[in-house]
């Protein structure tokens, strides 16, 4: 099985060096490139085709929020985006998730947590740090008062089972864990998750969970 390839984007060379050392110590992870600013991300993504971009949220020329938007808007079959941040409870992080990032990672995280985050985001089968995403939604979200998110949820017309799956997704459960809760097969859950994402127009489960909070489908409180 080929390794998960990662592009590192951070204006601090020491941060990039630290992440590279942690990731390349794993046989299933490979750092394929580095950049010091979000402005360099799109050409590198097109050239290197990484599976995951680990990107600082605050950079001098183009920050991680705008770089995330640019990648998702212009690159076909874009990589997963993992925002790297100093502060967990940061409005910039929530805006990056809103923009389409798949998760976030604290710069002070332990090596095992960094490795786990990259693998989890690459697999895309569960939510990274669900409690923290809920806290960010409570702090910086619209508290269910986002008209566009409410309208999108109404248009989605989720079935009762799909709605149940979305609620379990907001708790961070993996497909296997959801299958255990609902006493169904994992493949059945994958089908339900795919249907939820398609109906909500969400690129991944992180975006579906953000939509669930902002539409008032579930409360982050």
From TrEMBL:
Pfam families: GerE, Response_reg
Residues carrying 4-aspartylphosphate: 56
InterPro entries, per database record: CheY-like_superfamily, NreC/VraR/RcsB-like_REC, Sig_transdc_resp-reg_C-effctor, Sig_transdc_resp-reg_receiver, Tscrpt_reg_LuxR_C, WalR-like
GO molecular function: DNA binding
PROSITE patterns linked: HTH_LUXR_1, HTH_LUXR_2, RESPONSE_REGULATORY
All residue ranges annotated as the HTH luxR-type domain in the record: 151-216
Keyword field: DNA-binding, Phosphoprotein, Transcription, Transcription regulation
SMART domains, sorted: HTH_LUXR, REC
UniProt-recorded name of the protein: DNA-binding response regulator
Organism in which the protein naturally occurs: Streptomyces pharetrae CZA14
């Amino acid at each position: 099985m080929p390794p998960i390839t990662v592009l590192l984007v951070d204006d601090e060379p020491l941060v990039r060096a630290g992440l590279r050392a942690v990731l390349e110590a794993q046989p299933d992870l490979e750092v394929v490139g580095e950049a010091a600013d979000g402005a360099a991300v799109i050409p590198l993504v097109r050239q290197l085709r990484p599976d995951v971009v680990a990107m600082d949220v605050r950079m001098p020329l183009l920050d991680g929020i705008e770089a995330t938007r640019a990648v998702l808007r212009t690159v076909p079959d874009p990589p997963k985006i993992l925002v790297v941040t100093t502060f967990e409870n940061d409005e910039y992080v929530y805006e990056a998730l809103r923009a389409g990032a798949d998760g976030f990672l604290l710069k002070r995280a332990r090596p095992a947590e960094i490795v786990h985050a990259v693998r989890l985001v690459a697999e895309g089968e569960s939510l990274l740090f669900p409690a923290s995403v809920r806290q960010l939604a409570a702090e910086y979200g619209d508290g269910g008062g986002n008209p566009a998110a409410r309208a999108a949820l109404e248009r989605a017309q989720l079935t009762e089972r799909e709605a149940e799956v979305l609620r379990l997704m907001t708790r961070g459960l993996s497909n296997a864990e959801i299958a255990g809760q609902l006493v169904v097969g994992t493949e059945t859950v994958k089908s339900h998750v795919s249907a939820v994402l398609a109906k909500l127009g969400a690129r991944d489960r992180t975006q579906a969970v953000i939509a669930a909070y902002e539409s008032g489908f579930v409360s982050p409180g």
